[in-house]
Amino acid sequence: MAIKALRGMKDILPPTSAQYLTFLQEASTIASRFGFEYIETPILEESALFLRSVGEESDIVGKEMYRFIDKGGHDVCLRPEGTAGVVRALIEHRLDRQGGVHRFFYHGPMFRYERPQKGRLRQFHQFGVESFGEASPYEDGAIILLAKSILDHFSIEYTLKINSLGCPKCIGGYRERLVAFLREQEGLCPDCQRRREHNPIRTLDCKDPACQERYQEAPKISDFLCDQCHQDFTKLQEILNQEGVAYEVDPTLVRGLDYYTKTAFEFLSGALGAQSAIVGGGRYDNLVASLGGRPTPAIGFAIGIERILELIPPPAQERTGYYVGALLPDGVDRAFHLAQRLRQREPTHFEAAPKSLKAHLKGADRRNVRYAAIIGEEELAKGLVWIKDLVAKREYSLPVDEVAEVR
Ligand code: HAM
């Protein structure tokens, strides 16, 4: 039987692959304008990194990790997300000890053994940013504006939801009240029953409609925020208002990863069906310290590239470049040399098989080029190239050097 890609893993073929590259280039340019620099971290990391950051009680770590013991006996896993690896790199290279602000962007494959469905893959790609060393809500504002700039650049429509998850100071009191509330609830789903003791806040993110219904009545974290968290969340809203960003405060937005503190946000698209989150992010002011680094405030987000590509219209198919071929075997060398010179400045397709003019023109049309450049018997003898401009619908002959000249 033919071998196929694994379930939930997708090839990205042309023309989508061209859109993928364009997205990376333009998102990178926008992130650079906001002061972010490129970072690349390994896809494979020690499993402990994700256990201690994303959290043992999260679905991602509890159910979805591609985790195995390598040949050296190390417990490793394919990264399910990008933040933990960047934090590990920050600490390992002692950037947390240097002080100041460090801002990084990255992109690449992430792996989660989820149940595949539309918009939910087991290998998917993220474009992410992480900012370290700045606790001000202006950084939260800039990060949200960066995500918005990328979505706006590609004319993607979205709704933005924000929430504050508080800091350890305010979360303690809230957790107690939430646990008391959860204990009063009967018939919660098994996940929520388990989580109400170990990780009660994550129950609010449960997808079970019956649980969701009950949580409408749950105590809200916004009523428990300490003065500083309240002030910062209010300031963030002022910043977003000032910049004309539309958003909704959603007190049930808790995110699926355990490292978040204070600001959490998601950009959602109404055009994607059930898997509507296109960007997820937030603050994680305690993560650097909890992984052994110097206490460093941090905030970031990640965009799901496959979901974004569903929302970007295909680019206009403009005819560009050259198709070069020969009518007879004798002309193929000349055609190859011409193609090699043209490639210095234009996208060029070289056709190795000599064939009739009609067949070449069909090939040129299929390749969506602007010019067909053909070497026939007469052209070979006189050092010419026969050209058809497929846009202007003109035909003419020119000396080879004139066509190939670098403009
Ligand atoms: P996340 O919300 O788990 O956050 O993922 C971010 C985005 O990745 C989602 O909004 C979605 O677009 C995409 N995504 C997630 N899972 C899948 C999947 N199975 N198939 C396709 N796309 C998916 C994080 O990963 C955090 N590291 C974001 C962050 C960075 N927070 C702070 N810094």
Structure report:
It is elongated and about 90 Å long. It has helices at 16-33, 47-55, 59-63, 83-92, 95-98, 137-153, 168-184, 190-198, 200-203, 209-215, 227-242, 287-290, 305-311, 332-342, 357-366, 377-382, 400-404, and strands spanning 37-38, 44-46, 66-69, 75-78, 102-111, 123-132, 159-164, 248-249, 261-268, 277-283, 298-304, 322-326, 348-350, 371-375, 384-389, 394-399. The strands form three sheets. It has an eight-stranded mixed beta sheet with strand order 1-5-6-11-10-9-7-8. Strands 13-12-14-15-16 form a five-stranded mixed beta sheet, sandwiched between helices. The mean pLDDT is 95. It folds into two domains: 16-167 and 226-309, BirA Bifunctional Protein, domain 2 (2-Layer Sandwich), CATH 3.30.930.10; 322-405, Rossmann fold (3-Layer(aba) Sandwich), CATH 3.40.50. Helices cover 39% and strands 22% of the residues. A hairpin with a 5-residue loop joins β3 and β4. α1 (16-33) runs antiparallel to α6 (137-153). With 407 residues, it is of the alpha+beta class.
Briefly characterize the structure.
With 407 residues, this protein is of the alpha+beta class. 39% of the residues lie in helices and 22% in strands. The protein is built from 17 helices and 16 strands.
Structural class: alpha+beta
Task: Report helical residue fraction.
Answer: 25-40%
How are the strands of the largest sheet arranged?
Answer: 1-5-6-11-10-9-7-8
Terminal CA distance = 52 Å
Number of domains: 2
By CATH, the architecture of the largest domain is named 2-Layer Sandwich
Number of helices: 17
Low-pLDDT runs: none
CATH topology of the largest domain: BirA Bifunctional Protein, domain 2
Count every beta strand, where a strand is a DSSP E run of 2 or more residues: 16
Ligand catalogue = histidyl-adenosine monophosphate
- CATH superfamily membership of the largest domain: Bira Bifunctional Protein, Domain 2
Main beta sheet: strand number and arrangement?
8 strands, mixed
Class of the largest domain in CATH?
A: Alpha Beta
Q: Residue-averaged pLDDT, rounded?
A: 95
